[in-house]
Write a structure and sequence with these properties.
Layout (H helix, E strand, L loop, with lengths): L2 H68 L5 H14 L4 H6 L1 H10 L6 H4 L3 H29 L5
Length: 157
């Protein structure tokens, strides 16, 4: 054997070794992509399940609030603020918002009234003034909110 034959065989051996290494690396990348796809699918399924559970929880909360309105367990203003907020969190379409506009309208009419700590910081006179204003708005919207609370019962969004 001459030197040229040895160099050719050595070159062929190096090419074969590099091809095997490249093949193993390509296979590792394939396995990583496959594993990543499986994990992504599992995350998407978990996310979808969490969204469904959250939507069910929000729908249940809306039902509880609507029932509480009919039992006089909370004010119409509080129910309107909570129900409209929950509907907004579900990103309902404009038709639903229109159908239950009483909640949104009462929320809008009373949105300037302070609450929580801001309410506590008000003088007694200011609290009475805002209470009277709230009660006046609730009186105006009473029939509409009560009707909306009745119609929303049993609905899923």
């Amino acid at each position: 054997m001459n030197v040229l034959s040895i160099l050719i065989m050595l070159g062929a051996l190096i090419i074969l070794i590099l091809a095997v290494i490249a093949g193993r690396l390509v296979y590792k990348v394939y396995l990583q992509k496959k594993d990543r796809a499986v994990k992504l699918q599992a995350l998407e399924a978990a996310n979808e399940k969490a969204q469904i559970e959250r939507r069910e929880w929000v729908n249940k909360s809306i039902q509880i609030l609507a029932q509480a309105v009919h039992k006089d367990e909370l004010t119409l203003t509080e129910a309107s603020i909570r129900i409209s907020g929950l509907l907004d969190s579900l990103d309902v379409n404009a038709d639903i918002k229109t159908e239950f506009s009483a909640f949104y309208q009462l929320r809008e009419k009373t949105s300037h009234i302070p609450y929580l700590e801001s309410w506590q910081n008000l003088s007694d006179a200011d609290q009475k003034k805002f209470d009277l204003e709230r009660l006046r708005h609730e009186s105006t919207f009473n029939d509409f909110v009560m009707d909306a609370a009745k119609r929303i019962q049993g609905r899923d969004f």
